[in-house]
Amino acid sequence: MTALLAWLADTAIADWIQQSRWGYAVVNALHVLGIALLVGAIAALDLRLLGWQRRLAVVALARLLQPVAIAGLGLAISAGALLFLADPLDYAAMPLFRFKLVLVALAIVNALAFNLGPGPANASPRRQRLAGALSLALWIAVLACGRFLAFV
Ligand code: HEM
Fold first, then answer.
1. Which residue has the CA at smallest separation from atom 41 of ligand 1?
2. Which tens digit of pLDDT belongs to each residue from 34-47?
3. Is the CB–ligand 1 distance for residue 142 below 6 Å?
4. How does pLDDT run across 128-152, given as a tens digit for each residue?
5. Is the pLDDT of residue 50 over 90?
6. Cα angle at 29 between 8 and 139, to 5 degrees?
7. Helix, strand, coil proportions of the chain in percent (round to 5)?
8. Nearest residue CA, atom 14 of ligand 1?
9. Could you tell me if the CB of 36 is within 6 A of ligand 1?
């Protein structure tokens, strides 16, 4: 594992992110843009799943907000992977960084279990509340872990 991380730290793209004056700043801005799209869209859908604004149809909201959230997730993960290359050995050794990745995985599993299971159209109100509450709590925790990384 250490050998793989050391190899990653030595790749041309890692060199670029470590040395480029504006590269890190631009990739960081793209990470934040991805997070804004992801958490903004998913928090609105989660609040509806929790029972807020019941007159709005869950299926129509999901059709609008889930593609935005998925695009944001793709951008956050791609830009996050590039940020990771700035210092793979140190990040991989940080418990908070590992915890953040576990939370990202759990949040994705929660979304997949809801959508590939009952789905927004057929889920009972109880199942909707469970999915919405877990999603909101997990994504907020991921966001907090990401922000706190700079301070540990
Ligand atoms: C998908 C959901 C994700 C969220 C909500 C998230 C959230 C955040 C936040 C809020 C920051 C701080 C940004 C700033 O204040 O400038 C951050 C930084 C960072 N994220 Fe993420 N992140 C996500 C995914 C990832 C992934 C998948 C990776 C790695 C594979 C990653 C790697 C990083 C790194 C390396 C930093 C810089 C930490 C530092 O300040 O040293 N992130 N993230």
1. 150
2. 999 999 999 999 99
3. yes
4. 999 999 999 999 999 999 999 999 9
5. yes
6. 85
7. 85, 0, 15
8. 147
9. no
Per the structure, the count of domains in the chain is: 1
Instruction: Give this prediction's pTM.
Output: 0.94
Residue 41, CA distances (Å) to 35, 65, 74, 103, 152 in order: 10, 5, 14, 18, 29
Alpha-carbon dihedral of residues 34, 37, 40, 46, nearest 10 degrees?
A: -100
| Mutation to probe ligand 1, out of 18, 83, 136 (largest number of atoms < 8 A from CB) | 83
> Could you tell me the distance, in angstroms and rounded to a whole number, from the CA of residue 141 to the centre of ligand 1?
12
The whole domain housing 99 covers: 2-151
**Greater model confidence, 21 or 55:** 55
Q: Which atom of ligand 1 is nearest to the CA of 73?
A: 1
Is the distance from the beta carbon of residue 8 to the nearest atom of ligand 1 less than 6 Å? Answer: no
Residue type, 64: L
The predicted pLDDT at position 21 comes to 85
